[in-house]
Structures are given as structure tokens and as C-alpha cells.
Write a structure and sequence with these properties.
Elements: E1 12-17, E2 28-33, H1 36-56, H2 72-89
Antiparallel strand pairs: 1-2
């Protein structure tokens, strides 16, 4: 199937080699090849939603990962700084660590 024959809801999935043993399936990751029109529509939709969220104030100021300049890394930095501040103030009485099991690949 040619890429030009794809509909908006279809994609060609291709394995990409990442290193080590080529016979091991775990050394590959998949990428989806979609049409340019589909990618452009996704870009327009996401841009519109982000603009609406920002203008409407729908996102909490501490929400990271969905907006520019609010990455997951900045979220980690903020949480670590909050913990240090609370420890300095002596206001932390308990710290809870949650872990989630990894799914088998």
C-alpha cells in the first residue's frame, strides 16, 4: 500500500532498529507513517486545544506535560523544590513514595 492511498485513520507501521542484536525484537521500536494531511490536521487540532485551554484557564498552573515551557522535567524540579522547602520549614511529617510495576515488553 502506498502512503498516498492511506485514509486519515490508517497508518503504515514500520520497525526501526535501535542497536545491539538485530535478531532480538526488543531492539526495535515502531513508528507510524501517516499522510502529511493527517499530521497537519493533528497539529492544528492540538494547537487549537492548547490555545483554548490557556485562554480559558482550564489547566491548573501546576499541570505540566501538556503545555510549552511546562515539561515533565520542570514538574520534577518543582516537586523537588517543594519538598526541600517543606523540609527546611519543618512542615513535612510524612513522605509517600508510589511505584508502579513496569509492563512486560
Amino acid at each position: 500500500m502506498l502512503l498516498s492511498q492511506l485514509s486519515v485513520k490508517e497508518a503504515i507501521v514500520v520497525p526501526v532498529y535501535e542497536g545491539d542484536d538485530r535478531s532480538a525484537v526488543t531492539n526495535y521500536r515502531s513508528i507510524s507513517l501517516t499522510t502529511v494531511v493527517c499530521k497537519q490536521l493533528d497539529h492544528v487540532k492540538v494547537g487549537y486545544l492548547r490555545q483554548a485551554w490557556d485562554k480559558g484557564g482550564w489547566l491548573y498552573k501546576g499541570q505540566h506535560g501538556l503545555r510549552s515551557e511546562y515539561s515533565c522535567g520542570s514538574q520534577i524540579n518543582l516537586v523537588c523544590q517543594d519538598i526541600v522547602d517543606y523540609l527546611d520549614e519543618g512542615s513535612v511529617q510524612m513522605l509517600l513514595r508510589l511505584t508502579f510495576p513496569l509492563l512486560p515488553t
